[in-house]
Amino acid sequence: MTGMKEKDYIESLIARYLNGICLPEEQQELKLWIEESPENRNEYLSIKDIWDSSRSQADRAEGQLVIFYKNQLEKTKKARILWVRYSSAVAAIFAIGLVISLLIPQEKSSRHQNMQVFSVPLGSRSKVLLADGTLVNLNSGSELKYSSDFSDNNRVVSLSGEAFFQVKSDSLYPFVVKTANFDVKVSGTKFNVCTYDENSYSSTTLAEGKIELKIEGSNQNFVIKPGEKFELDRKTRKYSLESADIESEIAWKDGEFIFRNIPFPELVKRLERWYDVKLNYSDKGLQSYAYTGRFKNQETIWQVLDALRLTSPIDYRKMTFREFTLIYKPLN
Amino acid sequence: MPDFDFLFRKYHRRLLLYSLKYVESESDALDIVQNIFVAVWENGKYKQSENLVKAYLFSSVKNSCLNYLKHQKIVRQFEHESGLYIREIEAIHYQSGEKSLIENESLKQINDAIDSLTEIYKEVILLSRFEGLKNQEIAVKLNLPLRTVETRIFRALSTLKEKISQKSFFILLYLKGLQKK
């Protein structure tokens, strides 16, 4: 049997097996090959997975949905008890990084003129409780300003950077967040605003309640509903209003870092802010990659870079104390 | 909060594709997916956040497929023994927390990858996976030896695998593991 295990033969054997035309003895051969090493097993499994995901399967959701409701209706009509078998499938969530580090607030609270300024340095986060009872989580490198006469009936703040607001409800006196690009007006809600100067986009995402948004220097007003994200291109002034993944948008406030399919340059920017480091890269090949991942912020930048190195074609070199160079090394 | 119809429309096709990993009969696969939605409807799980529901839907489809395989093993005790064994290896692999592309990637991304294949690879994938031709039929149609068609299919799949895995990375931080080093 071993003599037959040349690559070509195995390749066509797998193609035959996937096509469902293997003879029993060929299946046996494939089984032995798969068992031979973890590499073989993984190769087979990944090829099979590609095979399974690249096929035409007419979308029958609509028809099936009708069948579903018809069945449910019949069930209630005849009061039949349908025995539904389902497994208690609670997804195991891999807790990566188990301890949430408590950050010592490092905000500098200073008073100049009649403005109160909270600024959070790179690499840390902070919380601010405002006089009206509104709670603000501030992300790394953010600044929150408000006039010293901020009170229950004068609720205006301005923000650069990123913050998550849990606004104390008051329909008489709206809470206003001013940013360089837009103003957000609310009565009582939970929402995130992200408006870093170095980002090309500014955005706001609503978790609960309702917000009104007005773009700076225009008459356009938007009403944003829960689960939606408004995003504005700072240069072109183009905007989009789409449903968003709230969990990953606001995970940062709990010291978690969740990202789904974010482009490499964006990942680098975020890591730089979170860890207060400089990450240099020059290879254009990196630009086209997208990343998905999740971790707690108490990992060191070294651990994050090690993880990058293990899972993608990137190596790194330490340049100075807080400066790294990322090197692209494509898989061959 | 996601509503039930939205979830049904969004995930039905993917769950069906997933169960077709193990279940040859399409009507059985449709039943499995229907039952999962019935469960989600009746236990109210669909009211949870979409991420939780999605994880629940996929782990339910995994469990149902594993049960289906177990049942098949009893029904077809002597036939296709190694074939079932191979499927079992696969089921165990995904039960251990590994995620299938069907679960991770959008199907559009996979279709885009197929579109970007070179012509000879794209051709065999379209004939095999989208028109449902058997390898032998493809060989006749393209006037190629069967073995050539088969290695071509394999290599097309292998190229797709690279294309998809190069495009997105899952950064896993096994903190404990890294610290031990």
Topology:
The complex is a heterodimer of chains A (332) and B (181).
Chain A: H1 7-18, H2 24-36, H3 38-53, H4 61-78, E1 108-112, E2 115-119, E3 126-129, E4 135-138, E5 143-147, E6 156-166, E7 175-178, E8 182-186, E9 190-195, E10 201-208, E11 211-215, E12 221-224, E13 228-233, E14 239-243, H5 246-250, E15 256-263, H6 264-275, E16 278-280, E17 290-296, H7 301-311, E18 314-320, E19 323-328
Parallel strand pairs in A: 6-7, 16-19
Antiparallel strand pairs in A: 1-2, 2-5, 3-4, 4-6, 5-6, 6-9, 7-8, 8-11, 9-10, 10-13, 11-12, 13-14, 15-17, 18-19
Helix pairs in contact in A: 1-2, 2-3
Chain B: H1 4-19, H2 26-42, H3 50-75, H4 81-95, H5 101-104, H6 107-115, H7 119-130, H8 135-142, H9 146-167, E1 168-171, H10 175-180
Helix pairs in contact in B: 1-2, 1-3, 2-3, 3-4, 7-9, 8-9
In short:
The complex is a heterodimer of chains A (332) and B (181). Chain A has 332 residues and is an alpha+beta fold. Chain A is 26% helix and 33% strand.
Task: Characterise this structure.
The complex is a heterodimer of chains A (332) and B (181). Chain A has 332 residues and is of the alpha+beta class. Chain A has 3 domains: 2-53, no CATH class; 108-249, Sandwich (Jelly Rolls); 255-328, Phage tail protein beta-alpha-beta fold (3-Layer(bab) Sandwich). Chain A contains 7 helices and 19 strands. The two termini of chain A are 30 Å apart. Mean pLDDT of chain A is 78; it is low at 77-113. Chain B has 2 domains: 4-104; 107-167, Orthogonal Bundle (Arc Repressor Mutant, subunit A), CATH 1.10.10.10. In chain B, α1 (4-19) runs antiparallel to α2 and α2 (26-42) crosses α3. In chain B, 37% of the residues are buried. Chains A and B meet through α1, α2, α3, α4 and β17 of A and α1, α2, α3, α4 and α5 of B.
